[in-house]
Amino acid sequence: MKRIFSNMTFTISFIVISTIVVRFYFSDFAEALASEPDFFPPDEVLPIASCQEWTENVRNFDVTDEEKAEQITVLMYHRIIDDEDIEEFHFDDNGNLFSTILVKSEFEKQMDLLLEHDYTTLTSLELQLFLMGQLDVPKNSIVLTFDDGFKDNYNEAYPILKEHGFTALNFMITSAISLNDRKYKANEFQYLSVSDIESSCDVFEFQSHTYNFHQRTFNQAAFMEFKPREEILEDLEKSITNLANQNRSFAYPYGAYKDESIEILEEAGFEMAFTVEYRDAVPGDSLYEIPRKEVYSDTTLDVFKEKINLKD
């Protein structure tokens, strides 16, 4: 009898609690049910071929031996969020802003500094030729990169980059692209929409960060290191299709790769790939192991100057 009573009490309690939860979060459930598909279709082609033609142009910088760069700093960003939009959601358990978030005011200061000191942002092709010893570029040359393809890249970073006359590489997880242009919310993990991409392709050079292999196994092994060769290649080919066959460069998720990863990228037709090794890129570097310096949430302007080798 006690067991029956206990079971009845549990069942009634569960129904009551479930009803309260559903009523309280009904709008969230409804929005989730009505939301767009989880993944951008693997056979869908982004309408970016024509608006990315500028990435094929190579400038003649006409620099003297004294003026040409011997090394290039490649910077890596993830999210740029307006200072006023920062909420508890953006902090870790220790009360620190997540390292991959940079507040907009700091990003603007960094871009102002680059502009003030006449920095030139290079395309991936110009960087490639520099690393191959086939192109001289000015000393104050730099490459800006963004990983993952977050929607705030368009809402916050794009206007600043455009105003400063800068370009950047944007490595997208193409399965995360939104078909519909949802309202931007800084407290959500939103990714670029098709409309965002079309509107910003005069500044962003869109390249691959996999289709849906920006993941780890339960043992924390990156898919690019763990998954079978055929599966990795299939994922990469999907991302290339999404990007209208734009496959010059690739960014390793988590910076994780092995020798076979490079072989797979070569087979997929990629010409270069970016790591997270912290140093400057120099001619002769492996095109599939290009180093980058990440800009963190706590990167002060003085530290930023050190990253770009700017001396007062």
Automatic annotation (TrEMBL):
CDD domains: CE4_yadE_5s. Residues 140-312 form the NodB homology domain. Keywords: Membrane, Transmembrane, Transmembrane helix. Pfam families: Polysacc_deac_1. The chain crosses the membrane at residues 7-26. InterPro entries: NODB_dom (IPR002509), Polysacch_Deacetylase (IPR051398). The keyword Transmembrane helix applies. The keyword Coiled coil does not apply. This is Polysaccharide deacetylase family protein. It comes from Evansella tamaricis.
